[in-house]
Write a structure and sequence with these properties.
Number of strands of chain B: 14
Largest sheet of chain B: 7 strands, mixed
Largest sheet of chain A: 3 strands, antiparallel
Structural class of chain B: alpha/beta
Number of helices of chain A: 15
Distance between the termini of chain A: 56 Å
Distance between the termini of chain B: 49 Å
Strand content of chain A: 5-15%
Order of helices and strands of chain B: HEEEHEHHEHEEEEEHEHEHEHE
Oligomer: heterodimer
Number of strands of chain A: 6
Chain lengths: 354, 269
């Protein structure tokens, strides 16, 4: 026990040390040239695109468009964490591999369905954040944006789907390792966002535990996932997505079962969504309110009304995307089967955003 | 269990088919999309679409999504009246998402058209398999049961003002007639009126977002429209101008504005 406490303290000390060592040392007014891979999907606005490079925020003209996974060289001047008057000097796109797979999927959805349905599928399946402004505002107003920006739930579902499918054909050991590779691929495809990485690490630890036949405590997994992430990138402690993801998970673990038990009157299909979002809201709502000034008292109800459609949208969307990259017409037909769910989701948002 | 899943999937397919078929009516819709300051007009009959201009950004996609059947990914004719960003800036997104069969536009190689918008459009049009058509006075284009008569510009037209290049055209459908005007300005209007036969219309898309240099009393006396659409958003130019609004009121023309009404869906039986 004593050794564990000491190792725990040492870990926190290392994180603290790394935080101070890796903190970028920019001064206001510095001219810099950044050479970097784009690790987050740029957000495209009417006239410009927003991206974050090495902790700096910057706005570039809309064209040429930068995508997740590109290697770029940008010059500009530092001003309070922003890069002012940035210039795109060079851009190299990755034509193969997982990054371009993501782009192809997004293109498939966006050329197969109109807005806002296309963005809803692309967001749900692989966490693409580029969507029409109106729709994004509706998601934020109703407290449902977390669904579309690829949450940890997606990772859990991917893992559950893979392990369920693979254990039919393969030995459990092999299935577990392939599933872990699948989780890793999914994390890369959906963009390195904190909630997805958190779920990816937690899922992987859980799977390793299963493979070794050890019982694992979910609290311990959560804490170690957080520490591992901070060890790799200490700057995450200031990332709102990171904080929200952990707070939401903690309140889920504390409250979801208890709330669910008290809602026995409500039909099972909707109850799960309601208890999940009620539990998560307890922890998350204050943080969102302080940072964005937003709070929608109806949010748990709206979530309950739409959350049940997500697994279907994900499964049909992912399947259609994979088929669609080989035989576009067939993929499109499969995608259309998700349309009733997409229509339901967007109609509910429309009703509640007035 | 397996049978239950198959049953559920079949029910789902049935719902999808119902949603796909149920939404179509057999009337002509002229939808002035609410794209803020700019023009984007969707003319739709069944699954045939004509898109006149595209606004400046991607708001046009929302509008197309609202009115086109979700499975229809083809626009039969797109018209870029002229290259100004508030009219043609959205075409790149439209080309990326939809198959455009025909694209009516002024010559994109015209030196006047050496703008970022034009360069990006040229690039997407090049790789899309779209047939590009250049406008010329007297040209008649048939799209399904809808006819378009081109009134301006003529081949070899040149000007220092991009607005003067605006494609002006009639849309005929049965006895119904509408005129679309881009950002045409009064000087060039006068030339069009003097050289081309112009008949009264039912519907006019007011030129240049209601600017006073786009609509003259003489023009309204010739066109005698019953309905006037002003496609306008928040702007610093004072569009639409008091003068034009008063002129329309004077002739008892019903005014519909996208900044006040949102999308204006005008239905012709």
């Amino acid at each position: 026990m004593i050794y564990r406490s000491i190792s725990f303290l040492v870990l926190i000390f290392i994180i603290f040390l790394r935080f101070n060592l890796t903190k970028p040392n920019y001064k206001n007014g510095d001219f810099v040239k950044i050479t970097s891979k784009v690790y987050n999907e740029p957000i495209v606005y009417d006239r410009q695109q927003y991206l974050k490079l090495q902790g700096l925020k910057l706005y570039l003209p809309k064209y040429p468009s930068v995508t997740y996974g590109d290697n770029v060289v940008v010059t500009g001047q530092i001003n309070n964490g922003k890069l002012v008057s940035p210039k795109l000097v060079e851009i190299k796109s990755d034509k193969k591999g997982l990054y371009s797979f993501r782009q192809k999927l997004i293109n498939f959805y966006k050329s197969s369905l109109p807005e806002p349905y296309a963005s809803l599928v692309a967001g749900t399946v692989i966490g693409s954040k580029n969507m029409p402004e109106d729709f994004w505002n509706k998601l934020k107003d109703t407290g449902t944006a977390h669904i579309v920006v690829a949450s940890g739930t997606n990772v859990t579902m991917t893992a559950a789907f893979l392990i369920g499918l693979l254990t039919v054909f393969l030995k459990r050991r092999v299935a577990i390792w392939i599933t872990m590779a699948g989780i890793f691929a999914y994390v890369v495809i959906s963009g390195f966002d904190a909630p997805i990485i958190r779920a990816g690490i937690m899922g992987s630890i859980l799977l390793i535990g299963q493979e070794k036949g050890r019982l694992v405590n979910s609290w311990r997994i959560l804490i170690y996932s957080g520490l591992i992430m901070l060890l790799i990138k200490p700057l995450w402690i200031t990332d709102l997505g990171f904080i929200l993801s952990f707070v939401a998970t903690i309140s889920l673990m504390l409250l979801q079962k208890k709330i669910d038990n008290r809602l026995k009157i409500i039909p099972a299909g909707i109850r799960e969504g309601l208890s999940t979002s009620l539990a998560a809201q307890v922890g998350v709502a204050p943080i969102i309110f302080v940072t964005f000034g937003q709070f929608n008292i109806l949010s748990p109800i709206i979530n309950a009304l739409v959350l049940w459609t997500i697994p279907y949208i994900m499964v049909v969307g992912a399947l259609s995307g994979i088929v669609g990259l080989i035989v576009p017409v067939l993929g499109r037909l499969i995608l259309y089967v998700a349309f009733p769910f997409l229509l339901w989701f967007t109609k509910i948002l429309e009703i509640f955003s007035y | 269990m397996v049978y239950k899943n198959i049953r559920n999937i079949l029910v789902l397919i049935l719902i999808t088919v119902w949603l796909a078929v149920f939404n179509i009516d057999n009337k002509l819709h002229i939808i002035a999309c609410d794209v803020g300051q700019g023009d984007a007009i969707l003319i739709q009959k069944n699954t045939t679409q004509i898109l006149i201009d595209s606004g400046s950004g991607n708001k046009v996609l929302d509008c197309l999504g609202r009115y086109m059947p979700f499975w229809d990914r083809q626009i039969e004719l797109a018209i870029s009246t002229h290259i100004d960003k508030d009219h043609s800036g959205g075409f790149v997104d439209v080309f990326n998402r939809y198959k455009i069969v025909n694209f009516l536009t002024n010559d994109l190689n015209n030196p006047m058209y050496d703008t970022l918008t034009a360069r990006v459009i040229k690039k997407v049009v090049g790789g899309s398999g779209t047939k590009v058509i250049y406008p010329d006075v007297g040209m008649v284009i048939r799209v399904g049961v809808i006819y378009l008569d081109i009134l301006h510009p003529y081949e070899g037209f040149s000007s220092k003002n991009t607005n003067d290049y605006s494609v002006v055209n009639f849309v005929r459908y049965g006895n119904f007639k509408a005129i679309f005007t881009g950002d045409m300005e009064n000087d060039t209007w006068d030339k069009i009126i003097n050289t081309t036969k112009i008949e009264p219309v039912d519907y006019i898309k007011i030129s240049h977002h209601g600017s006073k240099n786009g609509t003259s009393e003489k023009l309204l006396q010739i066109l005698k429209p019953k309905i006037a659409i002003i496609s306008v958003g928040k702007n610093s130019y004072g569009h639409p101008s008091e003068e034009v609004i008063n002129l329309l009121k004077k002739y008892n023309i019903k005014i519909l504005r996208t900044d006040l009404e949102g999308d204006v869906d005008y239905i012709v039986d």
